[in-house]
Amino acid sequence: MSKTPIMVLENVSKYYGLNGSVVKALKEVNFELNEGEVLILMGPSGAGKTTLLSVMGLLLHPTEGKIYFEDNIYDSKTKPEFLTETRRDSIGFIFQSFNLVKSLTVLQNVELMCKIGKLNKNGYKKRCEDMLKMLNMGHRLNHEPKNLSGGERQRVAIARALINEPKLIFADEPTRNLDSENGKNIGEYFRKIADERGTTILIATHDDRLKFCADRIIHMEDGILLN
Ligand SMILES: Nc1ncnc2c1ncn2[C@@H]1O[C@H](COP(=O)(O)OP(=O)(O)OP(=O)(O)O)[C@@H](O)[C@H]1O
Ligand SMILES: [Mg+2]
């Protein structure tokens, strides 16, 4: 596999201010993500995995350091609107909280992403249906989120993150609520889009069963990236 960096982190730190004290959640992280690779990020609870995904995914500003992505540099002073714009166009998230729209059905939740995405709008309904069927959600298209199980909601969130074919995907514990068959299915799909479309995927997980889909496994402890 050729190694073309898609995102580079240079001395990235993230501090949270909390009641006058400071939590150093990321400490001078240097790191490259390459095009078309699937990476698994492991580490104990509180190690900084969600924080790293949030900073790399441009949901949070780094406190110090720089992030290079798509010919731009992001740092503590980058305008929030610019972070939002880049995120919307190029990055997909599967996060620990699902953020589904309560008043919309499963299918409508996924369609909504197509309406605000930049991909060709033709035939998006069929694309959404196919994606949900692939995730074994074909029988729940017209249900509202409140009538779904945790694992079903998780799969709708995954469909939403993937439907616009972002070139970079961050997934925080994507298989947490899933049984082994659906977990394996997600891993296989990540592998497939990395190989076929060159999508880059960073997965934070405690789930050893996802290791089969990874090119690289990295570890974090106490805000430090170990390898
Ligand atoms: N908003 C916040 N304000 C203050 N401290 C925070 C905040 N979010 C996270 N932290 C702290 O930063 C550190 C890293 O947290 P983070 O959520 O990134 O860990 P994690 O590796 O994702 O853990 P887990 O495996 O439990 O999800 C922890 O010490 C946590 O308490
Ligand atoms: Mg976390």
Summarize the structure.
This protein is α/β, with parallel strands linked by helices. 32% of the residues lie in helices and 28% in strands.
Would you write up a description of this structure?
- The chain has 227 residues and is an alpha/beta fold.
- The protein has one domain (5-225): P-loop containing nucleotide triphosphate hydrolases (Rossmann fold).
- It has helices at 49-56, 80-90, 106-116, 124-134, 150-162, 180-197; strands spanning 5-18, 21-34, 38-42, 64-69, 72-74, 91-94, 168-172, 200-204, 216-221, 224-225.
- The strands form two sheets. Strands 6-7-8-3-9-10 form a six-stranded mixed β-sheet.
- Helix 3 (106-116) packs across helix 4 and helix 3 runs parallel beside helix 5.
- The longest helix is centred in the C-terminal third of the chain and has 18 residues, at 180-197.
- Bound molecules: adenosine-5'-triphosphate and magnesium ion (MG).
- Magnesium ion (MG) binds at residues 49-50, 172.
- Residues 49-50, 172 line the site of magnesium ion.
Features:
227 residues, alpha/beta, Rossmann fold, 4-stranded antiparallel sheet, 6 helices, 32% helix, globular, binds magnesium ion
Query: In angstroms, what is the radius of gyration?
Result: 17 Å
- Helix and strand sequence: EEEHEEHEHHHEHEEE
Biggest β-sheet: count, sense, barrel?
6 strands, mixed
CATH fold-level label: Rossmann fold
Total strands: the figure is 10
| Associated small molecules | adenosine-5'-triphosphate, magnesium ion
The share of residues in extended strands comes to 25-35%
> Structural class of the helices, strands and pairings?
alpha/beta
Would you state the CATH class? Answer: Alpha Beta
The CATH superfamily label reads: P-loop containing nucleotide triphosphate hydrolases
